[in-house]
Structure formats: structure tokens, C-alpha cells
Specification:
Strand content: 15-25%
Number of strands: 9
Largest sheet: 9 strands, mixed
Shape: globular
Number of helices: 11
Oligomer: single chain
Order of helices and strands: EHEHEHEEHEEHEHEHHHHH
Length: 314
């Protein structure tokens, strides 16, 4: 972080960029259109083979609030970390290069900066550009750190770091960085650590972020087993670093039930029974399998409960 004096911007916006030429203009234009103007934009060109890097440079020539960093391809986590090492704002937020912000996003969030270290907002899934069938993920309004943390640990909330604005000082802890070894759940890991560390947080029901799932490269609703296992790895990191309370442990166990269910479903889709059994046994060795009691009392269908119980027995 390079914050040095009062002339630095209030908000730093980090946008990792890779193969984004089709969507990048709309993303940057949404930031330029913000009614709150005291910001800097860090565009991190992660070795894009298309025109993304040139587009970034063109915008930087037009607005001195925009800074461009070109680097070899290393993934979204390394790009975000480079951005974090160069921010100048009191607060920081993230936008993915194929998504965009509504124009009043930073104005809304800035009205809470005096009282809260983290301001989170709601989002809309853009399923088809120009369509009217887009779904919203609306956060329940809350100022309770424990309630918000529970929902995040349970994976029952918005889990992307792009869903909020964060006090930059929270990132002074060197352990709060994006893990380049994770290609899934890296946001969940960082978000959990940020909320655990903060003293004040607010969840808003206002929709501010447009998440583009019409992009063909977006994640599937049926993740592969490898992606599910990345969530297990992230959860293991989270468990080591957050406060050890009964409340948080219960939430982590709830997430584990969902992850084992997703893992079993992903393995069964491969229709390889022997390898499925072997993999479940390996998961049980590496991660604590949910108890019979927790499975039976969790809100699952009867078929899902039977599948998880069978997974515990084999």
C-alpha cells in the first residue's frame, strides 16, 4: 500500500483484466460514471493476449485517476494482490472486468465510511444482456458482525469481494491476501478473514453490482469436483485463522455439509463408482466429515440426506 498524504483518493478500485476486450469498456465506463468522484482506478492487465491491455492504456491517457499495471499472466489472485500493493485510498473495492457498477454505488457506500470499516451491497445477476429476466441477490439489512459472519461462513450470502468496500487498513495484515493456489473460493477465504478482523460492518439491501453471467466463461451451476475441493481447501485456511467460537464452528459445519453434498454430486456425475468411493474416503481423511446428527438435522431433501449418510459409511 502506498497511501502517504491527504491528497490521496478516498477509494481505490482494483480491476483485474484478462481476455476482457468484449466487456472492458462497459466496466470502466461504469466507474467513470460514478457520482462519487474521489477515486482511483487500478487496471491490472494480467498478460491479456487480446486488446485488453491497449484498452486500459487508452483510458489511462484520458483520465489521470486511472493507473495501468501490465504483468505476466498469473491469475486473478496475483492481479488483485498487485493492486493491493499499490493502492492509495482509505477504502478499497474490486470489480471484475466483465461486470459493472451502478452509478450511485460509491456515493451510497461513502455515506457509511465514518461508521463502518466494511460496507457490503446487493447485486443483480445479468443472465442476458438487455434482458428482463435477471435475478437479484438481495442481502438482508444488518449491522451485526456475528450474523453477517455466520452467513458468510455458511456460504449463505454474497461471497465475492466485489460485493463491498473495505477499509484499506484491514489489508495491513499480510495474511489477508488472495491465495494464488486457489482458482475457486479465494474470495470466500479473503472475505471471511476481512469480516473476522473488522470491528464494524453493514450489509445493505441496495442493489449496486451487476454480475455478468451471460459471459460464456462464467462458472457453471454444477461445479466440477476439482472446484468443490478448492472450497474445502479454502475452508481449512479459514478455520485456522478466524476466531474459534461455537457460533462460527457451527456455521463452518453447515458449510461442510453443503460442500460434501456438492462433492458427492460432482463425483456421481462422472459415473465412476469405484473412483467416487475412493475419493470420498480420501476427503474423509483430509477433512472432518459431518456427523450423523448434523446431517439429519440439516435442511436437506431425504435423498440428499441418504447420499450423505452413505458417504459417511463407505
Amino acid at each position: 500500500m502506498i497511501r502517504q498524504n491527504e491528497n490521496m483518493p478516498k477509494v481505490s478500485i482494483i480491476v483485474p483484466v484478462f481476455k476482457a476486450e468484449k466487456y472492458l469498456n462497459r466496466c470502466i465506463d461504469s466507474i467513470l460514471a460514478q457520482t462519487f468522484t474521489d477515486w482511483e482506478l487500478l487496471l491490472i492487465d494480467d498478460g491479456s493476449p487480446d486488446r485488453s491491455g491497449d484498452i486500459c492504456d487508452e483510458y489511462a491517457k484520458r483520465d489521470n485517476r486511472i493507473k495501468v499495471f501490465h504483468k505476466e499472466n498469473g491469475g486473478v489472485s496475483s492481479a488483485r494482490n498487485l493492486g493491493l500493493d499499490n493502492i492509495g485510498g482509505d477504502f478499497v473495492t474490486f470489480v471484475d472486468s466483465d461486470d459493472w457498477l451502478l452509478e450511485n454505488t460509491l456515493t451510497l457506500c461513502s455515506s457509511y465510511f465514518d461508521k463502518y470499516e466494511i460496507v457490503r451491497f446487493s447485486m443483480v445477476y445479468i443472465e442476458s444482456l438487455g434482458g428482463d429476466n435477471n435475478r437479484k441477490l438481495v442481502l438482508p439489512f444488518s449491522k451485526s458482525k456475528n450474523a453477517i459472519m455466520q452467513r458468510i461462513l455458511e456460504r449463505n450470502s454474497l461471497l465475492g469481494v466485489w460485493g463491498g468496500v473495505y477499509k484499506a487498513d484491514l489489508f495491513n495484515n499480510p495474511s489477508i491476501r488472495f491465495n494464488s493456489n486457489l482458482v475457486m473460493a479465494e474470495d470466500w477465504l479473503v472475505l471471511s478473514l476481512l469480516v473476522n478482523r473488522c470491528q464494524s460492518i453493514i450489509d445493505l439491501s441496495d442493489v449496486c453490482y451487476c454480475y455478468n453471467i451471460s459471459n460464456e466463461s462464467s462458472c457453471s451451476n454444477n461445479p466440477s469436483f476439482n472446484k468443490v475441493e478448492q472450497c474445502f481447501v479454502a475452508q481449512k485456511y479459514i478455520a485456522k485463522q478466524i476466531d474459534n467460537t461455537d457460533m462460527y464452528n457451527k456455521s463452518m459445519n453447515s458449510a461442510k455439509i453443503l460442500l460434501f453434498k456438492a462433492a458427492i454430486n460432482a463425483l456421481l456425475r462422472e459415473k465412476k463408482l469405484v473412483s467416487t468411493i475412493r475419493t470420498i474416503r480420501r476427503l474423509k481423511r483430509e477433512y472432518v466429515y459431518p456427523s450423523f446428527f448434523s446431517i439429519c438435522n440439516y435442511r436437506l431433501s431425504l435423498i440428499e440426506k441418504i447420499a450423505l449418510i452413505v458417504g459417511r459409511i463407505i
